[in-house]
Amino acid sequence: MADGEGDPGVFTATALPGDPRLLPTVTSAFLGTRVFRDILHATGVYSGAAGDTHRADVPSPLGLRMAAPGAHSPAESFTLDTWTGTFSHTIQSPGYTATHQLYAHHSLVHLMAFSITIRRLDGSTHPVTVQLRSLFVPQSQDLDLTRGPDFQGAHYIYGQTLVPEVEGGPRPTVHMLWTPIPESLTLGGEERERRWEFLTAVAGSEEEARRSYSAGLALAAAGSLHRSHVRAWAALRRGCSVQLDGPLALRQALQGCLYYLLSAVPPRDSPGVPFHGISPGGLSNGTRDEDYWGHVFWDQDTWMFPNILLLYPEAARAILQYRIRTLEGARRNAQEQGYEGAKFPWESAATGLEVCPEEIYGAQEIHVTGDVLMAFEQYYCTTQDLKLFQEDGGWELVEAVAQYWCSRMVWSEEEQLYHIRGVMPPDEYHSQVDNSAYTNAVARRSLNFAADMARDLLLPVPEEWEDRARKIKVPFDEERKYHPEYDGYSPGEPVKQADVVLLGFPLMHPMSAEVRRNDLEMYEPVTDPAGPAMTWSMFAVGWLELKELQRAWSQLEKCFSNITEPFKVWVENSDGSGAVNFLTGMGGFLQVILFGFTGFRITRSSLLFDPAFPEGITNLKISSVSYLGNKLEVTITREEIRMEVTETSWDPPASPLEAVLESGQRFPLWEGMA
């Protein structure tokens, strides 16, 4: 390993962070909790109306802490192993060790579990007792819970959320079974080692909770419960493996980001479990007044999605299906504001209706609608999955977004261009502006994609889509050769976060290298250094494009002030404020590696690549890039690029690939050939 020894995917400490928000999370697609916390969350289970909608707190039996009675300051260690998806706490006392392991089962997504193992280290025969300190009470401020009959030795509670998101709407039901937890556990005098397993199953029906609990019990009885989780999780990590040679801090950040982001996506074998999107702080966070209450933003579609798409397109499809399921709510949002089509909410929960507590964002930060559609476009270009659009509701969403943008534009007689007025750009320091460069550029991209998609589906293309895409204004200063953020922007005005720089990537808005450089030069010094974590990653990608490697590295380095020790939990802002376990920042960071270092760009006709490594990085290996039904192993060094097709799909058949160099030279890529 270059630049520092140690496993970059195992984070160990002898003390916990003073701020409990910075404890690591254990999460599956359906359940999540922060370690040592007395609540957990289940996906899609929100309580509260409209702007008060938040993740419902489910009481958690998992938040206990071991203690060694009578031991004076025993040696303790705490470890997050990202390779096995397991958190462990170990107490080392004279004569024995006690280990507490906690995990969210990756394939049994309704199951979380922990074990306590006591192992004798000497020849003594006296009993060894470990205390289990728990704050668990089977009550919730968000759920009307009732005690039911025990099942296979487990206690049982069930109930509905107290307040629906929409008046008269459904109130999700939670059913929970858990192994009763004693106040202490004792290793008998004749025993050398013993392990106790404790299961918690949470589901939307009693039947599913029982099925998951029974399956967990059977695996535990066979001694393979944790092993079955590790096997499923390791398969995901192998399939989404990204490794590089470089500074240890960079490699640790990479593996930490992959752990937290991959924890949030559904496993390959759970098609029956609806996916409810990814919020900035993930499923483990999002109670009332915390981490944006578990709502889904553009963070999912713009910052997290591209990484998931490149490594794991099946999970990317599940994210898009969440947006399709909430389309009717998006239609209502547009209608309530007097527009046609569908306007996706700035903050989304279960219905797709706007649930942002502050009206200004829901009314003005409309670029999110284009961000959603850009994810659909990237997915289509990468997979050519026509079924999503022909049979599964994708086309209806594309069409509705195009209709919204057309109705949101007004014609300027003076400029002979279409305007979008009264918006808040990604830079939230400005509101009620006209012609946000980013908003208008993403609207243009939406309309162009809708027209292309209609042609691919052999549908008529409305003339106004193409006309408005051609004639929408994207502000540009001909004299200074840069994009003003909006009409009337003055150079030097402070900016909250990445905004205009997003035109270059991910929007790939047409511009010369000179203009790309000018945009970076203009906005880098005026972007708030205390702004959100994902910002610097997009400046890094921009400088990598221009082969300004030192400038790219200096921007990427800024991200490290948002990564907390010892468990690599990100905070939204470098002062510790905002969301924690900030998956948005992690998504931006991963894009620097997956799209910046590689130069990957997803277009309608190809996957472009143009690598650039900052100093200190010598090798990058991505085990499984997904493209048009093929899996590619990509290895990039300072001397060469090596691509090998490791797998091709047969249903539908994968498209044959070839590598095309700038010289025009072509190399066919067949399975097993590099």
Question: Which labels suit this protein?
Answer:
nine-stranded antiparallel sheet, 30 strands, single chain, 674 residues, 30% helix, 3 domains, alpha+beta
Task: Indicate the topology.
Elements: E1 10-13, E2 25-27, E3 31-34, E4 39-42, E5 46-47, E6 54-55, E7 58-59, E8 65-67, E9 75-81, E10 86-93, E11 96-104, E12 111-120, E13 128-133, E14 143-151, E15 154-161, E16 173-178, E17 184-187, E18 193-203, H1 206-221, H2 225-239, E19 242-245, H3 248-263, H4 298-311, H5 313-325, H6 327-336, H7 359-364, H8 367-383, H9 386-390, H10 394-408, E20 410-412, E21 417-419, H11 437-456, H12 463-471, H13 513-523, H14 535-545, H15 549-558, E22 563-564, E23 569-570, H16 583-597, E24 601-602, E25 607-608, E26 619-627, E27 630-637, E28 641-648, E29 657-660, E30 666-669
Antiparallel strand pairs: 1-9, 2-3, 3-4, 4-7, 5-6, 8-13, 9-10, 10-11, 11-12, 12-18, 13-17, 14-15, 15-16, 16-18, 19-26, 20-21, 22-23, 24-25, 26-27, 27-28, 29-30
Written overview of the protein:
This is Protein-glucosylgalactosylhydroxylysine glucosidase. It catalyses: (5R)-5-O-[alpha-D-glucosyl-(1->2)-beta-D-galactosyl]-5-hydroxy-L-lysyl-[collagen] + H2O = (5R)-5-O-(beta-D-galactosyl)-5-hydroxy-L-lysyl-[collagen] + D-glucose. GO terms for molecular function: protein-glucosylgalactosylhydroxylysine glucosidase activity. By secondary structure, the protein is an alpha+beta fold. The chain folds into three domains: 11-231, Beta-galactosidase, Chain A, domain 5 (Distorted Sandwich); 240-292 and 532-673, Maltose phosphorylase, domain 3 (Sandwich), CATH 2.60.420.10; 312-528, Glycosyltransferase. 30% of the residues lie in helices and 23% in strands. The strands form nine sheets. It has a nine-stranded antiparallel β-sheet, with helices on one face. Strand 3 and strand 4 form a beta hairpin.
